[in-house]
Amino acid sequence: MSGPRALFLLLVAAIWLFADAHIFVYHRFGDDRYPSTNTSIAELKREFEYLKRAGYRVVKMKTLVEALKRGKDIPDDWVVLTIDDGYKSFYEKGLEIFKEYNYPFTLFVATKPTEKGYGDYMSWQQINDCSQYGEIGLHSHAHPHLTRLNRDQIEQDTKKGIELFKKRLGFYPEYYAYPYGEYDDRVKKIIKGFGFRAIFNQNSGAVAKESDILDLDRTALVGKSDIARKLKLKYLKASWIEPKEYPKDSILKRIRIKIYEESPYAHIYVTDYGWKKVKVSEGKIEFNPGFKLKRERVRLIVKVKDSKINTKILVK
Fold first, then answer.
1. Which domains does the chain have, with CATH numbers?
2. pTM, whole model, 2 decimals?
3. What is the mean pLDDT of residues 277-286?
């Protein structure tokens, strides 16, 4: 094939190839005691088979971080797999599946449970064993709710985790994932001060060339997840103007967002209230819901066409 049609197809292929990567996060494996954070081994194999069959490339976190650092376009078929907390079920049940498919991973470890020898968590030796097949990142020391701590407490927790990494694993962690996925602008600023190469949240979404490398989205895969649907999520560049924090009276009076995408309307999601269609005027969204927030942790999501989304979390 040659001529204009061949050129057109090449352009279409290039548009598809360079778009958004996806980072997924797991917690427990084959542990029915905790269904809200568990992934069965059968489900894990089903998801891995889908990735393999659909032609996705599971790459190292290092590969994605290097591409972002250099400002490179991000291939649409890249997937990065992460595991939070350091539960023993990963070492005993999940790791062999990752090895079977030759899929790299990043394991985010909360250091206190391992240092104290809590029974549900991996030992340092087991974590060292995992490092042969994947990268190891920090998930705090005591796995606290960071938004409830003052600056000194956050810094002390982080320093303790880093000290144990250096003592037990022999290196300074390059990556950090917020415990519970909870953070705000104040917490983000403090954690950024430790010089991590990349910092990760737990907001559904995707990773594009424009993503903030110190606030990367990870989509949870727990229970029976529709991985095909989650792989359709795209990155939406957006600036959250209001609210900046959880409202003191728990009333969500106004939402103001600037989006960098041409669209006449968008949809806003608020935990417990679902999706609401709103107008977009010159890239600006102003929505006055007046919702009474019912939970201490609330997700706000803005979505436009083609499943492009951006998420903000509010923590009381």
1. 4-233 (3.20.20.370), 238-315 (2.60.40.10)
2. 0.92
3. 97
